[in-house]
């Protein structure tokens, strides 16, 4: 029995039973091959569909010219309200294939349980050149996507659990941060392995591989010592890099991070918290009505606006599958760099919210005591995610700018 599905993405709906594409509720005529191309992308979610895969799917394995493929992709973009310059719905990954750049939600045809996700309005870009997205290969062969924006001396922002280079650029949470950092620096940032636009499948299960990703992107910024801005589990990765390669790091800004993951904090409560968090990720990832999402938003951004919360839903759907998110969560909860803190030579600025329920402020207090050259600024906030417009926002950015320029 054939199973028919409906796929919703951006302002479009694809119905396989009716063999129909709608945009803004109105039917859009597309040729059969264009429909099949859009369907292949929808079925893949945010995963890459290779050009070989497209030929097998749409042309039954026949070899067709690049121009033929490009024509079908261009028609698909036009049908969903996109174009080759914006690539806001269908993205080309050079020499590799194409992928959806927006979340895709699906349900069986006729089901009333279809989940709809409203996508936040893009943040109006500031003046200046757009970001550039590139790829670099880590030491173990994993392709890491990184982006460059801003002007000035380089600044490296370490990848963390939940990023997507393209979505971040239009995010009501992250775009203001990128614009602010890019006002004085050329910002290099990347999606960590397993997430966003980087390779989804990866070997290894320790912090060393994540340090290798950081090193690969740092190499793109040049040989000079570079300041690093990072948050959450990226703090442990940056500290490990700074201890291993002191000549590569000039300064460190560490926001809401930790030296010891939940499994390494020496308490049964922390271990149980890690296990509970992992199970919630496995069962509720990317589901707007799930218990996980409700707890996630209450813990990570208790004072977040509706747009900011909806952005996190969008990010979950696009950044990683539930299985990959759970695997990454398990790995980073085992990070422990507490034994190398004294080896970090670079000056460090630590920022942490007093009410942070994701990683306790005691982790930053411990790091401040043990790092040789650290300044600690506690923040009057419960948010783990730095929210533009919140009282702590200007403190975070002004302290960061002062520290980096001193």
From TrEMBL:
<feature type="domain" description="OmpR/PhoB-type">
    <location>
        <begin position="4"/>
        <end position="102"/>
    </location>
</feature>
<protein>
    <submittedName>
        <fullName>DNA-binding winged helix-turn-helix (WHTH) domain-containing protein</fullName>
    </submittedName>
</protein>
<dbReference type="GO" id="GO:0016787">
    <property type="term" value="F:hydrolase activity"/>
</dbReference>
<dbReference type="InterPro" id="IPR016032">
    <property type="entry name" value="Sig_transdc_resp-reg_C-effctor"/>
</dbReference>
<feature type="DNA-binding region" description="OmpR/PhoB-type">
    <location>
        <begin position="4"/>
        <end position="102"/>
    </location>
</feature>
<dbReference type="InterPro" id="IPR050266">
    <property type="entry name" value="AB_hydrolase_sf"/>
</dbReference>
<keyword id="KW-0238">DNA-binding</keyword>
<dbReference type="InterPro" id="IPR029058">
    <property type="entry name" value="AB_hydrolase_fold"/>
</dbReference>
<dbReference type="GO" id="GO:0000160">
    <property type="term" value="P:phosphorelay signal transduction system"/>
</dbReference>
<dbReference type="GO" id="GO:0003677">
    <property type="term" value="F:DNA binding"/>
</dbReference>
<keyword id="KW-0378">Hydrolase</keyword>
<dbReference type="GO" id="GO:0006355">
    <property type="term" value="P:regulation of DNA-templated transcription"/>
</dbReference>
<dbReference type="InterPro" id="IPR001867">
    <property type="entry name" value="OmpR/PhoB-type_DNA-bd"/>
</dbReference>
<dbReference type="GO" id="GO:0016020">
    <property type="term" value="C:membrane"/>
</dbReference>
<dbReference type="InterPro" id="IPR000073">
    <property type="entry name" value="AB_hydrolase_1"/>
</dbReference>
<dbReference type="Pfam" id="PF12146">
    <property type="entry name" value="Hydrolase_4"/>
</dbReference>
<dbReference type="Pfam" id="PF00486">
    <property type="entry name" value="Trans_reg_C"/>
</dbReference>
<dbReference type="InterPro" id="IPR022742">
    <property type="entry name" value="Hydrolase_4"/>
</dbReference>
<dbReference type="InterPro" id="IPR036388">
    <property type="entry name" value="WH-like_DNA-bd_sf"/>
</dbReference>
């Amino acid at each position: 029995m054939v199973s028919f599905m409906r796929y919703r993405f951006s302002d479009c709906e694809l119905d396989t039973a009716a063999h129909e594409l709608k945009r803004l509720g109105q039917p859009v005529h597309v040729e059969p091959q264009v429909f099949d191309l859009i369907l292949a992308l929808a079925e893949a979610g945010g995963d890459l569909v290779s050009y070989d895969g497209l030929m097998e799917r749409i042309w039954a394995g026949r070899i067709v010219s690049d121009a033929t493929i490009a024509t079908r992709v261009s028609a698909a973009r036009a049908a969903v309200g996109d174009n080759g310059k914006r690539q806001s719905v269908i993205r080309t990954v050079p020499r590799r294939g194409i992928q959806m750049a927006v979340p895709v939600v699906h349900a069986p045809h006729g089901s009333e349980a279809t989940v709809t996700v409203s996508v936040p309005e893009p943040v109006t870009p500031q003046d200046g050149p757009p970001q550039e997205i590139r790829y670099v290969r880590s030491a173990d062969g994993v392709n890491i996507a990184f982006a460059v924006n801003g002007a000035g001396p380089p600044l490296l922002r370490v990848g963390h659990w939940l990023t997507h280079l393209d979505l971040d650029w239009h995010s009501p949470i992250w775009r203001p941060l990128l614009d602010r950092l890019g006002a004085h620096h050329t910002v290099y940032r990347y999606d960590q392995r397993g997430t966003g636009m980087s390779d989804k499948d990866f070997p290894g299960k320790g912090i060393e591989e994540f340090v290798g990703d950081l090193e690969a992107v740092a190499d793109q910024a040049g040989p000079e010592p570079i300041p690093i801005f990072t948050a959450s589990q990226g703090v442990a990765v940056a500290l490990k890099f700074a201890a291993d390669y002191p000549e590569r790091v000039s300064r460190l800004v560490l926001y809401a991070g930790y030296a010891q993951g939940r499994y390494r904090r020496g308490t049964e409560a922390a271990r149980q918290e890690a296990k509970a968090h992992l199970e919630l990720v496995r069962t509720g990832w990317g589901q707007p009505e799930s218990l996980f999402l409700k707890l996630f938003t209450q813990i990570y951004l208790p004072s977040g606006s509706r747009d900011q919360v909806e952005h996190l839903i969008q990010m979950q759907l696009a950044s990683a599958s539930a299985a990959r998110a759970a695997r990454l969560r398990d790995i980073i909860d085992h990070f422990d760099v507490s034994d190398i803190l004294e080896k970090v030579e670079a000056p460090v600025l630590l920022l942490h919210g007093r009410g942070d329920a994701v990683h306790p402020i005691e982790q930053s207090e411990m790091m401040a005591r043990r790092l040789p050259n650290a300044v600690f600024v506690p923040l009057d906030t419960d948010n783990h995610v730095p929210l533009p417009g919140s009282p702590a926002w200007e403190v975070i950015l002004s302290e960061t700018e002062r520290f980096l320029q001193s």
